[in-house]
Amino acid sequence: MNDYTQVARRATPRIHLVNPSHVSFGVGVITPRWLYVLAGATPDSFGTPLLTDETLEPLDPTTIQPGDIVGIGIHSGNALRGYEVGVMARRAGASVIFGGIHATLYPDEARDRGGAHAVVKGDGERAWPAALADCARGSLQPVYEGGRVEPDEFSPARWELLQPGRYMWGSVQTVRGCPKHCSFCSVWRTDGQRPRQRGSGGVVDEIVDLRRRGFRFIALADDNFYPVTLEDLRVAERRSDRSRLEMLQALRAERFTLMDQLAQLPSDMVFFTQITMEAAEDPEFLEAMRRARIKGALVGVEAVTPEGLKDIYKDFNASGDALVERLRAFQQHGIHVLGSFIFGLPSDRAQTFDATLAVAERARLTFAQFVMLTPFPGTVDFAAWEKTMAADPTRIDGIPLTRHWLIPQALRPKVYVPHPTMSADEIRERTQGVWDRFYSLRRIWARSRCVRSPRARLAFVLISKIYRQMYANTGIATDSARIGRSARWARWMAKPCQRLFAARPMPQLQVPSARQ
Ligand code: B12
Ligand code: SF4
Fold first, then answer.
1. 7 pLDDT above the threshold of 50
2. Residue 476 clears pLDDT 70, i.e. is over it
3. 53 vs 471, which has greater pLDDT?
4. 49 C-beta closer than 6 A to ligand 2
5. CA 4/CA 168 separation, integer angstroms
6. CA gap 398, 407 in Å, rounded
7. 466-503: buried (b, 16+ CB within 10 Å) or exposed (e) per residue?
8. Strand order in the sheet with 28-30
9. Helix crossing, 283-292 with 320-332: angle to 10°?
10. Ligand 1 nearest atom to the CA of residue 128, by list position
11. Tell me: the pLDDT tens digits for 194-244?
12. Ligand 2: which atom is nearest the Cα of residue 224?
């Protein structure tokens, strides 16, 4: 490179956005939304950012030049790799800016371990352009408070920057924040308890854009697609709280408008979301979901006993037969449920594992995930656990357990919170056993009856197996050889899976109108 290009590069710094990952699969399941949203929030004067999603392939370090600006988004799970990328980019002479939930919670860590010149806390829509402008002026600040922006300020994603044929599902967010307060979840604390719901117009524009590009599977990347329950409306009515009632009614009406517009999209489209099981008691809502082709939903079941639900402040969930009924209600409206369960809760006992599998089967769940209680930063559980660990000297690779995300993945324990009656190994083995039984070929084949054609049944088996492999480091499979093997397997399976999800692009597709 001659001097002239060096100078030219410095005059207009190249913007990079990197989604870090230690494992790359060549093909991704869901588009990492933040990359495309921040690209949308990047002022035109900075040119088009160069996006790297390391779940596809590792960052090519030679693309980073002195004077460039590198934005890195991290959650706790990929923070360690994010820090490697940050240090490498800083050494290459770039200005390094971190953002995302983990950097929001630990800005100092991003600076000390990740080479960050600056950290954006909270939402990036306003703070990212401000940081870029300061950087270009040579006055980058160490911390930017991004706060919580209002829904009309959410940046639409720049889907034209997608590499064709790399992802199976597009992702569009319709709401940020959740009114609940589950102890293991950080969303209500970082994103707030007031639902910040986007108007249907912006959401549908993005979905149409994705369908024009050949995506017919869309993940509605929300934590809770049902932020206003019938009970919320009843409570506001009982309290004669007029303004709250009107606000809740408006949010609910907007949901129906969105679903009505989704229903007018091409009939091959399929949506997936995350939702609380309270929606099971709202047949009108479930019916609208069916019409909108929201064919799948992750439902946080977490625990099958009342004691377990109390452990995690989730007593709005049902248990026993009522739980099975609620989960089946989704199915009766054509919505497949991915049930999410947590093992290792203080009230869990050896028999909880079989009881959970039995509920998953009685409820006829299409998919299930069985995660072990992990104290994620930003949660009530984490704060309580960190306190109890203050005097604990245990370190792995020199890292205290309370900073578990900094421990190299292959050495990371799978169970952190001591259990009153079970050892960590027992919880891991029993969790693994439930995964193995739920995803045995016999059971998957039996469940595949939920779709009709032989091709669809084959796809169902493939997807079930790939899903299970992606979680293969659950349980006793903590060694790097096993993680490596499952990554290779998932990589091999990913390409045929991607083809199953791809659809014919529809460049002429029009945005449906909102009916009154
Ligand atoms: C969709 C989603 C998923 C998808 C991800 C698909 C994908 N390819 O993106 C799937 C289902 C795979 C998933 C899996 C998991 N997830 Co998840 N997921 C989400 C969810 C609901 C939405 C993420 C999203 O797309 N948001 C939309 C974008 C636009 O918002 P954003 O990422 O927050 O970005 C904004 C700001 O943070 C900021 N920003 C972000 N990055 C950057 C970078 C820079 C440089 C700047 C300036 C700003 C900035 O600007 C953006 C715009 O405002 C979030 C919750 C949430 N509300 O974010 C949980 C969430 C991120 N997941 C979480 C967890 C725990 C997991 C799992 C571990 C769950 C599990 N037990 O298996 C796994 C881990 C996956 C992994 N590989 O490590 C936690 C993370 C907690 C933590 N402390 O890290 C969250 C916060 C949910 C929760 N319950 O607490 N997840
Ligand atoms: S787990 Fe789900 S319902 Fe509970 S606070 Fe988090 S997003 Fe809301």
1. no
2. no
3. 53
4. no
5. 42
6. 8
7. bbbbbebbbbebbeeeebeebbeebeebbeebbeebee
8. 28-30, 167-172, 217-220, 270-275, 294-302, 336-343, 367-372
9. 40
10. 47
11. 999 999 999 999 999 999 999 999 999 999 999 999 999 999 999 999 999
12. 7
Residue from 181, 183, 188 whose mutation best tests the ligand 2 pocket (most atoms within 8 A of CB): 188
CA atoms within 13 A on the CB side of 5: 4
Q: What are the tens digits of pLDDT across the range 397-444?
A: 999 999 999 999 888 888 888 899 999 999 999 999 999 999 999 999
Ligand lying closest to the C-alpha of residue 299: 2
Whose tokens are 């100078």? That residue is: 7
Atom 7 (ligand 2): residue with closest C-alpha? 223
Nearest ligand, CA 175: 1
Q: Which residues pair with 73 in a beta bridge?
A: 99
Residue 475 has a pLDDT of 40
Tens digit of each residue's pLDDT (9 = 90 or more) over 74-102: 999 999 999 999 999 999 999 999 999 99
User: Could you tell me the two tokens for 460?
Assistant: 């169902």
- Is any ligand 2 atom within 6 A of the Cβ of residue 474? no
Polymer length in residues for the chain: 516
What pLDDT was estimated at residue 483? 64
Mutational pocket test of ligand 1: of 74, 75, 120, 467, the residue with most ligand atoms within 8 Å of the beta carbon: 75
Ligand 1 pocket test, pick from 29, 34, 473 with the greatest ligand atom count within 8 Å of Cβ, gives 34
Query: Which tokens go with 428?
Result: 């891991």
Q: Which residues contact 1 (CB under 8 A, 6 or more apart)?
A: none
Find out whether the beta carbon of 269 lies less than 6 Å from any atom of ligand 2.
no
Ligand 2 centre distance from Cα of residue 331 (Å):
21
